[in-house]
Structure formats: C-alpha cells, structure tokens
Amino acid sequence: PLTPQPDPQAGAAVKAADRAHVFHSWSAQGLIDPLAVAGAEGAYFWDYDGNRYLDFTSGLVYTNIGYQHPKVVAAIQEQAGKLATFAPAFAVDVRSEAARLIAERTPGDLDKVFFTNGGAEAVENAIRMARLHTGRTKVLSAYRSYHGATSTAINLTGDPRRWASDTASSGVVHFWGPFAYRSPFYAADEAQECERALAHLEDTIAFEGPGTIAAIILETVPGTAGIMVPPPGYLAGVRELCDRHGIVFVLDEVMAGFGRTGAWFAADHFGVVPDLLTFAKGVNSGYVPLGGVAISGEIAATFDKRPYPGGLTYSGHPLACAAAVATIEAMEEEKVVEQAARLGEHVLGPGLRELAERHPSVGEVRGLGAFWALDLVRDRETREPLVPYNAAGEANAPMAAFAAACKKNGLWPFVNMNRTHAVPACNITEAEAKEGLAALDAALSVADEHTTG
Ligand code: PLP
C-alpha cells in the first residue's frame, strides 16, 4: 500500500467541515470525533497525520475484496462513461448480468433478483414479499440480531439499537436463537442448545398461531450481535418448521454473504435453502450502494400475474451493478472465497484461539472464514462480560482502552459492547492477518488488566 503523506492541515479542514455539516449515524452529534480519512487501499486506510491502519472492520463488514480494487474501480469508470444511469423498468445489460451472476451463486432455486440500495431495503422487501405470498402478517425474528435501520428492519432487529424506535404495531415477535456460550436455554452443550432452541421456536409458533405467521427471518450467522455460528441441525430444523406450517424462511445474508464465511453464502455451510435470501455489502464490496433479495421460484410465481407493489428509483443502478459484476468476477479470478476459507482455517481461527489461551480477557473465540468474534470477559469462569451485557450507551472504559491500544498498534478494531470482531477484507494476505493478530495480542494485554478472574 501507499505510504501516507502527512498533511495535518488538510485533515483539520476536512474534520471542521464534517463537524459543521455532516449529521452522523447512531451518534450524539456533539460527542463524536470522527477520524479524517485521507485514503485507502487493499486492507489498509490512512489518516492525514501519517497513521496507517489495518482495517479489521472492512468498513462496516462490507469491503470483502478490500479498498480500491483496480478492476472494480475501472468497471465503475467504464460504466459511467457508457450509461451512468437508467430507470429500473428497462432491461439493461449490466443489470441483467449482475442478476445472472448472483442467481448462479445463491443456493437452490433462488433465481430471481430484486435489487435495492442496501441491506435494510432488502429486508423490507423480503418481508413484504413474504406477507403478500402468504396473506399473513406476523414475522418471527431472533433476539441478538441486526436487520437494518429502516422501519420494518429495525423492528425485526433484536439488539439494543432497536429500543429507541420500536413500534408496538410492527407485527414482529422475537424469539431466542441458539448461542451455546451464553445459552438462553441453560443447555450443557451445542447439541442440547440446538434441540432446546428448536423446541422453543416450535412453542413460539404454536402459541402465536402458525396460520398467522408470514415469515421467520434469521441471519444465517448472526453478525453484528456476535458472530454466533449456529449449531449443526438448527437451520435445517427451522427449515422443517417453516415447511410444516407454510411459513416463508428468510435468511439475511447481508453481512455473511459473498465470501465472508469462506463460502459464497453462509447457508452453503449448512445445506439449507431459504425461500428468500437478502444480500448487500459484499455483493460489490460496497463501492456503490447495492443490495437485494434473491427469490425462490415459488414466491416469484406469486407475482407472475399480480403486480409486486414495491420499487425503488435506483433499483439495479447501472454503476452499482457494474461494480457487482466486476467484484464477482474478481472474486472468481482471485479465488477470494477460497482465500477466506483458508484464512479462517489456518490463520485467523488458530491465531485467535492461541491468543485466547494466553489472555484471560478472552472468554470465547467463535467464527469462520474472515468472520470472527472475541467475547471479552471479566472472569472466564462466570463469563461475566467485560462490560454489562446491555451496556448500550453506557461508558465502556475497558473496551475503549482496548480499542485505543489496537489503534496505537496500527489496527482499526470493530468493537461492540464486550466484543471485538476480526472481520478484515476476505482477501488479506497471511502476513497481513498475522500483523492484525499481533496488534490484537498487544491490545488484549490492556483488556487483561480489567479482568478479575
Ligand atoms: N442485515 C444484516 C444482517 C446486516 O448486518 C445489516 C447491516 O449491517 C443490514 C441488514 C442492514 O444493511 P444496510 O445498513 O445496508 O441497510
């Protein structure tokens, strides 16, 4: 990567303009101090003060092939010169090609693609399709999930971000998914967790009334809420419950899809095919906003003679689709999916587990591919989180100290409550991953100081 040229004055000007006019997501505007970014390439970005960071967040877990991939940048430039935009009701070559490449990679018969501008809109439309297809209204969604910040998506979301904007009339019912390390079912092991989680879901369906439930939505591997790989058999069990009751099964792969887990889709690891699959982020590494819903033949047929009542001005935007075509082609050419799988098996997985052996602050390591979480604890025995589990908005000194130590060591960390996620670009080299592990090692020594066990 480029060596950043320091220019603190330019950085100060960028930051001042930001503070004057940009209203930031999820933030108290007067309490934040966003870093001014001067540039990015591959797995790194840098500021105006000459600091370079290895990005272990992939932005918001979306730059699956890293920053400024030359093939994708060129494809966007070329498309801009040829046909920068065209409305969704027309057949446009690059849109058709993106849909074909996506449909060929999604599991089973998810062969039609409805394009959106991002993940939340994909979720909104998946739920609308499920409700129209079934004629039912209720939707079951898991606690410890994130599905986006628009109205339906935030109501589906099962984490503290939902609390401020939840509405009573959403039609959403939450249930507990499996999470062996912090088991809601007091299970002794993964097999028991799976069995009890399925029994709980079956009970929830029975008490809500199967005939009232349009859809069950799950993240295949819940991401933002903690990268909790489901136990073997769980997703197949949910599929069976959906089939038994005529419920649409929606898998949200906005974060887990497009190589993140070392497969094109996380569902591939479990041999499960949903009726609807939502995607965004990695589909084009986020170079131009794009998301969508991959739709089964049966649900698509519902709208063969009956209009689908939904659409977006920029649905299937040519620049976004050109970026998707180039991204998917680059992922094939450079074997990025295989690289993510290898990283997980041989570098990140073993490397993080080795850190857990030496650092008492690491309670659990979980994940796969380029998708890992460290659950940080005060005490390994009690598993007491390094911060209160529902610490949204509370001061979080130990995690702040951990994050500061990462940055001091050249690593930009993902921190959420008591967790840090190792979610770099899927195509980082082994040397880059090891550089990240070394920075985490140093920062975990700081977290260790806050343990009591
Ligand atoms: N669904 C999942 C699983 C996500 O992780 C996210 C974002 O992180 C979303 C939906 C929302 O996507 P977007 O922020 O593009 O609306």
TrEMBL record:
Tagged with keyword Translocase: no
Cellular component per GO, a single term: cytosol
Entry superkingdom: Bacteria
GO molecular function, one term: pyridoxal phosphate binding
Keywords: Aminotransferase, Pyridoxal phosphate, Transferase
One Pfam match: Aminotran_3
InterPro entries named in the record: Aminotrans_3, Aminotrans_3_PPA_site, PyrdxlP-dep_Trfase, PyrdxlP-dep_Trfase_major, PyrdxlP-dep_Trfase_small
Cofactor(s) demanded: pyridoxal 5'-phosphate
SUPFAM superfamilies registered for this protein in UniProt: PLP-dependent transferases (SSF53383)
Family statement drawn from the similarity comment of this UniProt entry: Belongs to the class-III pyridoxal-phosphate-dependent aminotransferase family.
The protein's name in its UniProt record: Aspartate aminotransferase family protein
